[in-house]
């Protein structure tokens, strides 16, 4: 018993010196190798067996003492192990789901892009259909504008319609007849504008002067003034140059035509377009510019200048002769006794 106690104490001291279990084994091997007698070896073996038995008893006692804590620890460890395993499985499943979602999102993205492109195409088609519908109404609206002499609106409408028909709508076969019709009207539109321009340049301006002199003659006949008829006041003649130099046709509070740019001239569909000749001729020039027919307009004015001036002289001569004859008739009647 004393020997077993010594052996156990020796092994404890050895274990306390070195926590490595191999140190105890090396110590036992060294003890057995140094002993020459078989009896010593048997004694050493007995010591080891007794020490191991004591260790088993101590371990059993410790297990009995800490059974509850040990059971709880084992169960907790099992629970933790199961949770870790479940978490790994869930993470694996989540990864698989994410991969499948990524593939589905790629497919959805392609579908959405396709739908987006189709939406743009449909919107473009709808815009073209609206434009076609509006263009089909152009001939009727154009006729109304021409009848009311709103030439700037008519020119804008015609130029825009022809540009659309010869541009985005060029491939629409159903609009070929309308395209030819509007193109022909655009080619001849400037002739109408030039005629209107000449009418205001040469006819309407001189008619206004003739009308003014008629009124003067009528007033003088009512007063029975025996003085000769005053000469025609050509200083008040409304020539195109004076349209730009004076503000005789400007409304009170408005600027003169000299200060008005051609780009600022706008057409009021509510008013009579010919009420202001200066503005009307500006509108005609603007319409001709939109039609790109300014060179043709200048050539037409140059070609017709001599003829129109001769017509002015002829009309003025006729008016003077008629006024003189009428005045002579009135004087002859006044001098005859009743």
From TrEMBL:
Transmembrane segments: none
Span of domain Exocyst complex component Sec8 middle helical bundle: 273-323
Keyword Membrane: no
Assigned GO CC terms: exocyst; growth cone membrane; synapse
Ranges for domain Exocyst complex component Sec8 N-terminal: 46-144
PANTHER family cross-referenced by the UniProt entry: EXOCYST COMPLEX COMPONENT 4
Protein purpose: Component of the exocyst complex involved in the docking of exocytic vesicles with fusion sites on the plasma membrane.
Name by which UniProt lists this protein: Exocyst complex component Sec8
Biological source species: Ciccaba nigrolineata
């Amino acid at each position: 018993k004393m020997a077993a106690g010594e052996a156990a104490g020796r092994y404890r001291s050895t274990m306390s010196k070195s926590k490595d279990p191999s140190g105890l084994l090396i110590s036992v091997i060294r003890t057995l190798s140094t002993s020459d007698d078989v009896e010593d070896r048997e004694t050493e073996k007995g010591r080891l067996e007794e020490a191991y038995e004591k260790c088993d008893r101590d371990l059993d006692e410790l297990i009995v003492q800490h059974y509850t804590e040990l059971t709880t620890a084992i169960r907790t460890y099992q629970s933790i192990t199961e949770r870790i395993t479940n978490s790994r499985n869930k993470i694996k499943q989540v990864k698989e789901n994410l991969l499948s979602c990524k593939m589905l999102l790629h497919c959805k993205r392609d579908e959405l892009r396709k739908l987006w492109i189709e939406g743009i195409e449909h919107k473009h088609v709808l815009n073209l259909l609206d434009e076609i519908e509006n263009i089909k109404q152009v001939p009727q609206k154009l006729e109304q504008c021409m009848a009311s002499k709103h030439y700037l609106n008519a020119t804008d409408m015609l130029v825009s319609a022809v540009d659309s028909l010869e541009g985005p709508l060029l491939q629409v076969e159903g609009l070929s007849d309308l395209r030819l019709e509007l193109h022909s009207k655009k080619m001849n539109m400037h002739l109408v504008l030039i005629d209107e321009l000449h009418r205001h340049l040469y006819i309407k301006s001189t008619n206004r002067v003739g009308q003014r002199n008629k009124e003067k003659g009528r007033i003088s006949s009512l007063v029975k003034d025996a003085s000769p008829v005053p000469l025609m006041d050509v200083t008040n003649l409304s020539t195109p140059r004076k349209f730009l130099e004076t503000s005789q046709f400007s409304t009170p509070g408005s600027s003169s035509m000299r200060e008005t740019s051609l780009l600022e001239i706008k057409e009021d569909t509510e008013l009579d377009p010919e009420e202001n000749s200066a503005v009307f001729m500006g509108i005609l020039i603007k319409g001709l510019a939109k039609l790109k027919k300014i060179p043709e307009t200048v050539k037409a004015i140059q070609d017709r200048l001599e003829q129109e001036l001769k017509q002015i002289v002829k009309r003025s001569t006729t008016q003077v002769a008629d006024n003189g004859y009428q005045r002579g008739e009135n004087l002859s009647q006044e001098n005859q006794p009743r």
